[in-house]
Amino acid sequence: MTTARYDDAALRLAAAAAVRAPSLHNSQPWLFRLCDGGVEILGDPARQLAVADSTGWAVRIACGAAAFNARLALAAHGTPADVALRPFPSEPQVMARLTPATPRPPTYAEQQLYAAAPRRFSNRRPFWPDPVPAEARIRLIDAAHAEGGWLDLLVGMTALSGFAQIARSADRVLRRDPAYQSEMATWTHADAASDGVPATAGAPVAEPQDLLPQRSFAERRRAPGRDFEAEPLIAVLGTHADRPIDQIAAGQVLQRVLLTVTDAGLACSMISQPIEVPPARDHLRQSLRRSGAPQMALRIGYGDPGRPTPRRDLDDLIVG
Question: Per-residue pLDDT tens for 134-160?
Fold first, then answer.
């Protein structure tokens, strides 16, 4: 009996989708290889942010999100994958290994999410005041549950104000660190670089009335009358534990939620400051009355059209 194997064409198909995943400062900390007929997603230590991601949490989240996109691409083309996270204890840089499962036609949900992957981007601009419908909120919660995670939507100004206080406190801690600010500046570009955050994709300069913190990727002022929404929909995404393997799984949860956001015609930006500062993260967990670990916060709503940030060439990301 012949064991099914992925080939070079499947590797490139998976990698082309995987690179559309999000990563902290668009650092794209991943590599891809074909090994023994399986597609593997590896963390790239050369792209781990030394200050902002000293523990490797952001690399694992990003590689988990990339693995989800790779899964979608393979399933959408009739060759779904079985996924093993951290399959080799002696090779912790191998975040996920995808091996061929039984061929089948893609589901409607797989087709829709795969189609959304190239359109997904972080929208850091003010959103419109239109509320997110209840049906869409339920879809987002279900998306997180489908990947074994959880998604709490903060309802009411009491919950929002509490979250905003935690987020602003964490942001102040990070702003006071010159090394953190210097590192972020190196990943901010004024041109069409293949990584990092284009200055045009950053949020407008913060103003005193803003409820939530924004990273200063640019000095762009907002248009008159375009304040950030007064009551944003904030979602906190998490997992039931916080081991390295749980953080990779959290990346898969995150990407399924983000693609569901895109498929629903919504916009989203990520708020990671409360996760990056350990005391703030614990405070957030307590405020949610959760025993698990928050892994990312999201701002969700209706926004202006935009476009995804550039990605590096596949030939630089596929290794032997």
Answer: 999 999 999 999 999 999 999 899 999
